[in-house]
Design a protein that fits this description.
Layout (H helix, E strand, L loop, with lengths): L2 E2 L1 E3 L2 E3 L6 E6 L4 E7 L3 H19 L3 H17 L1 H11 L4 H18 L2 H4 L3 E7 L2 E9 L2 E5 L7 H12 L3 E5 L6 H13 L6 E3 L4 H9 L5 E5 L2 H13 L3 E5 L4 E5 L5 H13 L9 E7 L2 H12 L21 H12 L7 E4 L15 E4 L6 H4 L6 E7 L2 H10 L2 E2 L1 E5 L3 H10 L4 E4 L15 E2 L2 E2 L6 H7 L1 E9 L17
Parallel strand pairs: 1-5, 8-9, 8-11, 9-10, 11-12, 13-14, 13-19, 14-17, 16-17, 19-20
Antiparallel strand pairs: 2-3, 4-5, 6-7, 7-23, 12-22, 15-16, 18-21
Length: about 500
């Protein structure tokens, strides 16, 4: 089997640690290759190359960086189908969903192409007699990106595009479960004309992550993954004096009010709950049915589930593919198997699986779920949708706000007043009104609240520019030597 290696200094590099991990086709349940797992020494080699490249790249004109990003945008556009096919082969999501992932990643590259405008600083003239103050934004240096398995193209582009646009060098550590897309991205970066070493890829596991978090020449770390790991990344990297944005897990609720269109809400719940087999940090995993809408809503969701076609991602007609590994499939299945014992009702049981020998599960629907049950408390990250019943709007908001996660939330209603009140009072970072998956466009920032984000900056958009730069404030005076005097007072203007 082929061994998937690293990309360092503008070229493919084989692993030298002697350690590998298996890579699978989850739709067939078979191993298709091995991925090299970098040692700390190999990570150090990549960081050194990046640090050397960052010096010249950070000093290059922003117009040059924009030009190279424009070329990268064209190459990504030309290779949409190639990237999507790799994602489907190693992750399992259906091709149309994979194409959507590539498109959302491309949005972020397009945003970064405006870097000459995005890096404009500020200027204040005559803050004191003959004194001006201006602020410039400068790159931080070397940025490490640690990305999850569920979006092997989109999330790296969330980080990479803004990081290199701002003049930084970038070291990507993708998930070892679906590593191949990272190498095609690196190749396209090289073909676009980025200097050697500006973008590097090190495959690996916890050893590589630890080396990046502790390396003295890594200046900033971007991370997307589970909450326990996000907390570890934040604590470890900040202890080593790095700036960190670490996006964690989610338990996204969809609140449905009695006045909502039940059919539209059911369509949205099925789409957002079971899309990509539930392996999205923005997936809806809890439907909060308010008042009398509950019975009709549960029936409408259940009626739609048999129409969800489960199969290989590259098979015509497939709507939902497999889960990423057999171990994860078994973990997700355990929530359905244990639901009745905790007092919930299994309305639809999809735990029997799917076609062939792949890591498939069907769609499951649980009703009567409450806080304290495993199906409610845990981030399942699979095709299991839970329904919690509450009596009032205020109970629904209190339920959402009491949850430790705060990534995304949705409200379905025809009442504009209720929607405005929900927007103001809900304690979640991304809110959808009749939109089940409120992922912002690239010109806005992606990030949750509470245990869904560790660090001060969400990812991409304007906050990405702020995260990948440091402000430098310059105060200047060009005095007349004839008027120069000694003044021991503290400057106060005037």
């Amino acid at each position: 089997m082929d061994t998937i290696g690293h990309w360092i200094g503008g070229r493919a590099v084989p692993g030298t640690s002697g350690r590998t991990a298996p890579v699978h086709d989850p739709a067939r349940g078979v191993q298709t290759g091995d991925v090299a797992l970098a040692s700390a020494a190999e990570v150090g080699d990549a960081v050194k190359v990046a640090a050397d490249a960052a010096v010249g790249w950070g000093a290059s004109p922003s117009s040059r960086r924009a030009g190279v990003l424009f070329r990268l945008r064209e190459l990504l556009d030309a290779h949409r189908d190639d990237l999507a096919a790799i994602v489907t082969r190693e992750h399992g999501k259906v091709l149309d969903d994979a194409r959507g992932e590539v498109a959302r990643g491309l949005d972020n590259v397009e945003f970064a192409c405006g870097i000459p405008h995005l890096l404009k600083g500020s200027h204040s003239a005559e803050v004191s007699g003959g004194v001006d103050v201006h602020t410039v934004l400068q790159p931080v240096g070397v940025v490490a990106g640690i990305t999850p398995f569920n979006f092997p193209v989109m999330v790296p582009l969330w980080m990479l595009a803004n990081a290199v646009a701002c003049g930084n060098a970038f070291v990507l550590k993708p998930s070892e479960k679906d590593p191949s897309a990272s190498l095609l991205l690196a190749e396209l970066v090289q073909r676009a004309g980025f200097p050697d070493g500006v973008v590097n890829v090190v495959q690996g596991d916890a050893e590589a992550v630890g080396a990046l978090l502790e390396h003295p020449d890594v200046d900033a770390v971007s991370f997307v993954g589970s909450t326990p790991v996000a907390r570890f990344v934040h604590e470890t990297a900040t202890a080593h004096h790095k700036r960190v944005q670490a996006l964690g897990g989610a338990k996204n609720h969809m609140v449905v009010l009695p006045d909502a269109d039940v059919g539209a809400a059911a369509d949205a719940a099925v789409s957002a709950g079971y899309g990509s087999a539930g392996e999205r940090c923005m997936a809806i995993s809890v439907v909060v049915a308010v008042g009398a809408v509950a019975d009709d809503l549960v029936d409408a969701i259940a009626a739609r589930i048999p129409g969800v076609v489960v199969g290989p991602g590259d098979a015509p007609g497939s709507m939902m593919g497999p889960l990423i590994t057999a171990e994860h499939r078994d973990r997700v299945r355990s929530y359905v198997e244990g639901a009745v014992g905790e007092g919930a009702q299994v309305v639809v049981d999809g735990s029997a699986g799917g076609p062939g020998d792949g890591f498939f599960l069907g769609c499951s629907l649980l009703d009567g779920v409450e806080p304290g049950m495993r199906a409610y408390d845990d981030e399942i990250f699979g095709p299991v949708l839970s329904v919690v019943r509450v009596a009032t709007f205020d109970e629904a908001v209190a339920l959402v706000n009491a949850n430790p996660y705060g990534n995304g939330v949705a409200l379905f209603t025809r009442d504009g007043g209720a929607a405005r009140r929900f927007e103001r009072t809900v304690e979640v970072g991304m809110v959808g009104i009749n939109v089940p998956i409120p992922v912002p466009v690239a010109a806005h920032s992606f990030g949750g609240w509470k245990s869904s984000l560790f660090g001060d900056h969400p990812i991409y958009g304007p906050d990405g520019i702020r995260f990948y730069t440091r402000p430098k404030v310059v105060t200047t005076r060009w005095p007349d030597p004839a008027s120069s005097v000694i003044d021991l007072g503290f400057p106060h203007g005037g």
